[in-house]
Every structure is written in C-alpha cells, then in structure tokens.
Amino acid sequence: MTVLVNGIVTEVGPDATLADVLAVHGVPERGVAVAVSGEVVPRASWASTSLREGAVLEVLTAVQGG
Amino acid sequence: MGDPLVIGGREIGSRLIMGTGGAANLSVLERALVASGTALTTVAMRRLDAGGGPGVLELLRRLGIEALPNTAGCHTAAEAVLTARLAREALETDLVKLEVIADDRTLLPDPIELLDAAEQLVDDGFTVLPYTNDDPVLAAKLADAGCAAVMPLGSPIGTGLGIRNPHNIEMIVAAASVPVVLDAGIGTASEAAQAMELGCDAVLLATAVTRASDPEAMATAMRLAVESGRLALGAGRIPRRYWAQASSPSR
C-alpha cells in the first residue's frame, strides 16, 4: 500500500505497521513525534499501529525557533 | 538568588527566557545561550526532514537548559493543539509556549483562537504559557482559563520596536494572578530592563540576541539588564518631580 510520510509517497507492504514505515525512513526513537491523519500516536503504540491505504503521516522534531 | 521565578509550580533558574530562532549556527547559539544565563529556551516543531538543525535538542540537553516547545506558525486552535501534543510526545514535557497567530505579516496573536487553544490545552494537562497581545482583558481571561503565565508582546515578533504600550503592560502586571513574561519586540538591553521595571516577572527574547552583530555580547547585556531592572523595581524608584531638587547642600 501507499502512505504519505511528510509529503513523501512511500510504498510499504500490505501489513506494514507504523513502526515499519518509520524504520524505512530512518526515524529515530527519541526526540520525534508522529501524527497519523491528525492524531498523535504515542511511541509505545508505533509497533501495534496498523495503517490504511493513503494514511498521512507527519513526523516532527524540535528545531531552532521562537 | 532568593527570588526565583516560579511558573506552574516549577522553579526557573533565570528570569531571562531565550529563544533559539535566528542564530547563524549552533556554535553562535551555544555561546549566546551560555552568556545569557538562561534556564529555559524555546524550540519550534517542524517536519523531521525540514532541516534547520536536529542538533538543537542535544545542545540544550548538554547545556542543562530546559526546552520550551512553541506552536509557532499555527493559525488555528486546532493546529496549535495538535502541535502542542506532538511537542509533548517528542520532548517529553508538558510545557508549551502557545502561539496562535492571525497573519504572517504582523504575526500578532489571534485572541479568539488563542483563548480556545489555551482552554483545550489546560484541560489536557499542559502547562500553558500563551504569547498574547498587550491586552489586559485577554491576559486576565487567559489566566482565568488556567494558564501558568501570560506572555504579552512589547511589539510584534522580530521588530525590535520595544515596549509600545508600557501602560498596558503595567495594567496586565497589576491584575495578574500568574507570572507575566514580556515576550517579543525587545530590541536592546534598556528595553529588557524596562520590562522588569514595569513589573514583569521575566523577559523572553530571541531575535534581539541571535541577530545582533555580536550575539554573545548582547546575551550578556540582556542578562544584566533583566537583573538590573528587577533590582531597580525592588529598590523603589524616586517619584518624578516637576522642578529640580538640589542634591548638594546649599551652603
């Protein structure tokens, strides 16, 4: 199936979990947060969160600002 | 110091809260942060692949400075609430500098969306520090909503125009049930001192330091100005007089 990760179209297996998709993109375990279709998914739930075709993932971290 | 700043039950080791935006690089930022003596410093939340220095969190950790995530760039309560929740997850903190701006030209807060977002985040257990207009009515409503501090602007973000309405800041301070942090618009050290003399509990600034010709020197100036203003407030200034009063004996 196809999901969108920070605007990048990403092809993953049909049973890919959120953790699988994040691993594809080399997302670190600390200092980041993930929202799937506008809902925050806590780190502890990444491995058990299944995704639907077309899911929109946003992966954020802290940068200089404010 | 025997006069600590306390926000939301936690003691903050400095009355100068810094921002990290605008620094040319992390090494300049590090020297400025150290010189400022700050204990709490803002960061923004952006896409992981957006660049802009993933090293900022590591830098704050190394310097022992607590991170204060902001919701910069959010235009609606819904965006700000989501950003705050993402920040809490990423940074493992319940602190949030709540910014909900009305437009990108003035970067002024949208008061309606701001109050809405503040209420939602307080309900959700956040320690909310809202960036607000210099409006005593709105500041009081934010405090009533359970915000841990109110952070009125001196003038719009990044303008360096100083404190445009000192009387409003004094009215906010007079009515405040929570700490008042002068946030945004400071251009130079005298304005930071003025904020403290007006009774603010702390000053938050970034651009004035990070975009100064010598950020490290300006950070030192700001640290001293905040301390001086606080001392002067406590010392009690003389009343203003119309006519001169000799300070030397007449004979």
UniProtKB/TrEMBL annotation, chain A:
Name assigned to this protein: Sulfur carrier protein ThiS
Gene3D superfamilies listed in its UniProt record: 3.10.20.30
Organism ancestry: Bacteria, Bacillati, Actinomycetota, Actinomycetes, Pseudonocardiales
PANTHER family: SULFUR CARRIER PROTEIN THIS (PTHR34472:SF1)
UniProt superkingdom: Bacteria
Signal peptide feature range: none
SUPFAM superfamilies, alphabetized: MoaD/ThiS
InterPro entries, alphabetized: Beta-grasp_dom_sf, Mopterin_synth/thiamin_S_b, Thi_S, ThiS/MoaD-like
Automatic annotation (TrEMBL), chain B:
Subunit structure: Homotetramer. Forms heterodimers with either ThiH or ThiS.
Name of a matching Pfam family: ThiG
Keyword DNA-binding in annotation: no
Protein name from the UniProt record: Thiazole synthase
Gene Ontology MF terms: thiazole synthase activity
Record-linked PANTHER family: THIAZOLE SYNTHASE (PTHR34266)
Organism field: Actinomycetospora aurantiaca
Primary subcellular site in the record, as a coarse category: cytoplasm
Domain of life: Bacteria
Phylogenetic lineage: Bacteria, Bacillati, Actinomycetota, Actinomycetes, Pseudonocardiales
